[in-house]
Amino acid sequence: MGQLEITLQVNGESMKLDVKPAETLLETLRDRLDLTGAKEGCGLGACGSCTVLLNGVPTRSCIVLTAELDGAEVTTIEGLGDETRLDPLQESFMEKGAVQCGFCTPGMILTARSLLNRNAQPTRQEIIRTMSSNLCRCTGYKKIVEAVEAVSSRETPKP
C-alpha cells in the first residue's frame, strides 16, 4: 500500500507528512523528524520510554500509527520549555537528582507534565500512581516523585 498524507502539529509546528500505513509515531518522530527524546524501550507500549503527549494525553508512541493521527497535536520532550529556559519539571528533575541514565526521563517528564496540567497540586499518592505507569530501572522513583512535588505549588524549585 502507498503512503498517506497527514497533517500533524509537532511541538507547535504544523507539518504535512507522507507516512506509511504501518509507521509508528515513534518511527516518525525519531527517524523522520530527528526528535530523539522518545526512546524505544520495549516496543510494546509497556515501559513508557516512548511517551509523548498526544492531544495533551500521555501516549506510548511505539504502538500508535502515525497514519491515524491526521490533525493531531504531538508534544515531545523537545517541545517543552523554550530556547532560553527549560520547563520547570526539567529543572526540577535535574535539581532533585531524578535523572540517572536518562533513558526513561523524557517519558517521565511528559507524564508528569500532563498530570500537573490537569491538577497543579496532586497528592503524593496521585503522583506515585501516575508515575508508576513509566518504568525506571535506576532511581527507585523517590527522586522522581520529589521532583514532581517540587513543581507543584507546595514547593518552588530553585532556578
Task: Write a brief structural summary.
The protein has 159 residues and is α+β, with helices and mostly antiparallel strands. The chain is 30% helix and 16% strand.
Structure report:
This protein has five helices and five strands. It is of the alpha+beta class and 159 residues long. The protein folds into two domains: 4-79, Ubiquitin-like (UB roll) (Roll), CATH 3.10.20.30; 88-151, [2Fe-2S]-binding domain (DNA polymerase, domain 1), CATH 1.10.150. A five-stranded mixed beta sheet has the order 2-1-5-3-4, with helices on one face. Helix 2 (88-95) packs across helix 5 and helix 4 (124-131) packs across helix 5 (142-151). The relative contact order is 0.15.
List keywords for this structure.
DNA polymerase, domain 1; alpha+beta; 5-stranded mixed beta sheet; single chain; 159 residues; Ubiquitin-like (UB roll); 2 domains
Note the total helix count.
5
Order of helices and strands: EEHEEEHHHH
The radius of gyration computed from the alpha-carbon positions, rounded to a whole number of angstroms, is 16 Å
What is the domain total for the residues? 2
Q: Indicate the structural class.
A: alpha+beta
CATH class of the largest domain: Alpha Beta
Any idea what the shape is?
globular
| Distance, first to last CA | 51 Å
Number of strands: 5
Predict the CATH topology of the largest domain.
Ubiquitin-like (UB roll)
Trace the largest sheet across and list its strands.
2-1-5-3-4
Please identify, by name, the CATH architecture of the largest domain. Roll
Helix content percent band: 25-40%
Largest sheet: 5 strands, mixed
The proportion of strand residues reads 15-25%
Low-confidence stretches: none
Quick check: average pLDDT?
92
Q: CATH homologous superfamily of the largest domain - what is it?
A: Beta-grasp domain
